[in-house]
Amino acid sequence: MKFRRHYIYLFLGLALLSTACKTHYNVDHVDSVSVEMYDSVMVDSSMLLIIDEYKASLDSIMDVILGYSEISMQKGQPESELGNFVCDLILETCINVYKDSLGLKNKSMVLMNNGGFRSSLPKGAITMGDVFRLMPFDNEIVILRMPGSLMKEVFSTIAVYGGMPLAGIEMILRADEYTSVSFGGNPFDEKETYFIITSDYIANGGDKIPGMDQNTMYLHTGILVRDAIIDYFRFLSENAQTANPKKDGRIRYE
Fold first, then answer.
1. Reduced to 3 states, what is the DSSP secondary structure of residue 185?
2. By the number of CB atoms within 10 A of the CB, which of 53, 132, 145, 249 ranks highest?
3. Segment 212-221, tens digit of pLDDT
4. Hey, what domains does the chain have and what are their CATH numbers?
5. Using one digit for the tens of pLDDT, what is the confidence trace for 104-132?
6. What does pTM read for this prediction?
7. Cα 47 to the chain's mean position, in Å?
């Protein structure tokens, strides 16, 4: 069962109300200017009771253990255990969902951005809160169909950035250029059509990846990146498995 975000929004809204009282706050200096804040709404004791109730409910949800990891996952370049793990599970999720309609296998790549990972994942128990800290945004997984000629621009940008989290391809870099790309062991062919599985943030211009807006298909999956991670950890637990991603040289310098 997917986590219901309205619990978080309700709690945050209530929390904001709870801080509205006749109190004087001294805030840290900003550009050597002392900033002062005044609130003018009285605290309602019944409101505090409601906040406590929802805070306890939220805390209990965030403390739920989803699964386990054998290593601490950090982000990095040109590849990382965290990036490989998230991109691999997104690729597996989309291939399973669209295997009968799109034929994504060996024709698609997952592309994410390190900036979207707002924390790491610890070794040991992985809780709901860990995943929310990693992915606090409601970014949706989308699938773009791309002509091979546009894929070359994407590869070039990845090389200039020094690598990005990805799956489905093997990419060799030299300095700030790429020298080769293969999909499932098959050399990239600019005359072919491929799929980029990514977040709506990247697809809509985030990180300034050229060519994204020239896709020939933009498919909303309705799956949040965060939910895909949550569901994958649950899948691992249900099958008595743990996460143990590796760096495998999928993107590397020659």
1. coil
2. 132
3. 999 999 999 9
4. 6-62 (no CATH), 66-253 (3.90.780.10)
5. 888 999 999 999 999 999 999 999 999 99
6. 0.80
7. 34
